[in-house]
Design a protein that fits this description.
Layout lengths: L3 H5 L5 H9 L3 H8 L9 H8 L3 H18 L4 H29 L6 E4 L2 E4 L15 E5 L7 E3 L10 E5 L20 H6 L1 H9 L4 E2 H8 L3 H13 L3 E6 L2 E6 L1 H11 L14
Parallel strand pairs: 3-5
Antiparallel strand pairs: 1-2, 4-5, 6-8, 7-8
Length: 274
């Protein structure tokens, strides 16, 4: 598969990621495509994509949106909560014994720390020299038993990413992949349907415009709901350049985590809520 992160950047916003893909340099796209085994019937299309054909890129962008809507969006609140718990384990290990302890805590069947070398079991042999760039350790939900080392071939200053299978470390909660409606909807009962949807949509941080798009209400309406959530301490709002950005507070994250195990809050198309 194409290393999407190197083409789309380290962003949690799908629209920004797609725009980065459409603007990715041809040399970078070719570098990602050259190691793929492409079926003969698709080679002309792949050649057009590598040459920077706009229509081919738009087709990839549409496929990414469809894939995200099917494989990620319906499950994201639970996935985010689970990945946060995995990340917290890394943080605790680092707090107890520094970077060495954190590296030693990683799955030994995939990663082995032999100072000063980190060995990773991987189907392709390669030596990656960090040269002071650092290493980003990330958890992957869709990778089961294989580590991935993601490096941007066109940016020698960017830190490589070591993506480790999160589900291999600990079985996920039974409801991780559940999307069906269940009785109760505790967050909706507490906050109202729209505000519960707003709180869920802020999980990974977003601007007011993005928030309105995710919840499918007007910007003015979502601003009012965000104001209420901010006043009760569930979200914070700050400036990121010219953009207003909303993020969860620890209280908001705890409330969301406690509620998503019982019901998934769906985007709504009306602005009614308490």
């Amino acid at each position: 598969m194409i290393d999407a992160m190197s083409l789309m950047g380290n962003t949690a916003d799908l629209d920004e990621a797609v725009e980065n893909l459409l603007a990715a340099p041809r040399a970078l796209l070719r570098a990602e495509l050259e190691n793929l085994q492409i079926q003969p019937t698709h080679r002309n299309w792949a050649r057009n994509l590598a040459d920077g054909d706009r229509e081919a890129r738009l087709q990839v962008a549409a496929a990414l949106r469809t894939s995200h809507a099917t494989t990620t969006a319906p499950y994201w609140p639970r996935m985010h909560s689970f990945l946060t718990s995995v990340r917290d384990r890394y943080v605790r290990a680092m707090g107890e014994g520094g970077t060495e302890r954190m590296l030693e805590s990683l799955d030994p069947s995939l990663v082995r720390w032999r100072p000063p070398v980190l060995e990773v079991r991987h189907p392709r042999e390669a030596d990656i020299h960090l040269g002071g760039r650092g290493l980003v350790v990330s958890s992957a939900v869709f990778s089961l038993q294989q580590a991935e080392v993601l490096a941007c071939p066109g940016d020698s200053a960017q830190a490589p990413v070591l993506a480790l299978p999160a589900l291999g470390a600990e079985p996920p909660e039974a409801g991780l992949w559940s999307v069906g409606d269940t009785a109760g909807r505790p967050l909706e009962e507490l906050l109202g349907r729209t505000r519960a949807a707003v709180l869920e949509a802020v999980t990974d941080g977003c601007s007011t415009t993005d928030l309105a798009r995710r919840v499918r209400v007007s910007v003015s309406s979502v601003s009012q709901h965000a104001t209420v959530l901010r006043k009760v301490g569930l979200i914070t709002t700050g400036r990121d350049g010219k953009t207003t950005r909303h993020t969860l507070t620890p209280l908001g994250a705890a409330l969301l985590e406690s509620g998503i195990h019982n019901a998934r809050t769906l985007p709504v198309s009306s602005s009614h809520g308490r």
